[in-house]
Each structure stands twice: as C-alpha cells, then as structure tokens.
Amino acid sequence: MRENEDGMSFDPAAEGWKVPEEWSGFVGEIGPLWVRRGERGLRVGFEAEARHANIRGVVHGGMLMTLADQMMGQLTWYVAGGRPCATASLSNDFLSPARIGEWIEGEAAIVHQGKSLIFVRGDLKAGDRPVLSATGVWKVLGA
Fold first, then answer.
1. Neighbours of 69 (CB within 10 A)
2. Which of 24, 129, 131, 137 is surrounded by the most beta carbons within 10 Å?
3. pLDDT of 26-44, one tens digit each?
4. Rounded distance between C-alpha atoms, residue 69 and residue 123, angstroms
C-alpha cells in the first residue's frame, strides 16, 4: 500500500487491481504488474521503484516499453480468445519522465482486428501526466 498524489493511501488490490498468476519469468522479476479492465480495454499499472531507475534517476525507458508491451499483448491474448500472440511491431514515443515512487498506469485498446493481425494502441500516465504513447501489431500464432 502506498500514498497517491493527494497523500491518500492507495492499495491496488482494494481498487480492483490484480496480479495475474501466469505472469512469471521476466515479467515476474520486474513486477508486480497489476491489471484490471478499463473503459477502453485493459489497464496495467505498477509502482516505480529504485530498481526501475535509469542512470538519471527516473524510470528506465525499457521498463516503460515493457509495461506497454505487456499491457497491449495481454489485451490481444484476450481478444484472440486465449490463443497465443506475439509482438510483431512496437513503436513507443516518450512524452515525459516517470519518477521513482509514482504509480504508472496505462490503458490499451484495439484499433483493428483482422484474422491473423491485431493492431493496438496504448498510453501510459503518471497521474494525469502522459508518460508514453505506444502503437503495435500482434500476430495471432497459428492463424
């Protein structure tokens, strides 16, 4: 449990966030990454810790790109009916630095779904401040 920007305590679990049990390996090492359904699609969030910092003391861009990839990839898995999907293309635009101690969250939404390709857009924010914008294409494996 942590304090949000208003100094109020914030407990992701109490706010409806969950940590998927299947997220292990690399994602398990950098997390916990929290998930919940959003207005447009899927939301993912995490609390930025010192271990997520780059040499300048803000959240490493690789961490933000990983969050976007995981968030968008998880959404494609859902809309593909649980069939495996792989990132074919991922483009990220860094908009402002994410700071250690901030709750970073984002939401992904499907832009277009074909038979074997799914196009997704996602945005990450720290509070109301945009941090990263991403677009990507996922290949539905075996399609």
1. 18
2. 131
3. 888 888 888 887 776 778 9
4. 11
For 10, 92, 99, 118, 122, the CA distances from 13, given in Å and listed in that order, are: 9, 28, 22, 30, 22
| Paired tokens of 72 | 């968008």
Given the candidates 1.20.1440.80, 3.30.300.30, 3.10.129.10, 3.40.190.10, the CATH classification of the domain at 2-140 is: 3.10.129.10
Q: Which two tokens stand for residue 85?
A: 């999907």
φ/ψ of 9, rounded to 5, equals -70, 140
**DSSP state string for 83-135:** --EEEEEEEEEE-SPPBTT-EEEEEEEEEEE-SSEEEEEEEEEETTEEEEEEE
Give dist(CA 60, CA 92) in Å, integer: 13
- Closest by CA to 70, choosing from 87, 95, 53, is 87
pLDDT of residue 5: 52
- CA-based nearest residue to 2, from 41, 35, 32, 28: 32
Residues in the chain: 143
Low-confidence stretches of the chain (pLDDT beneath 70): 1-9, 40, 143
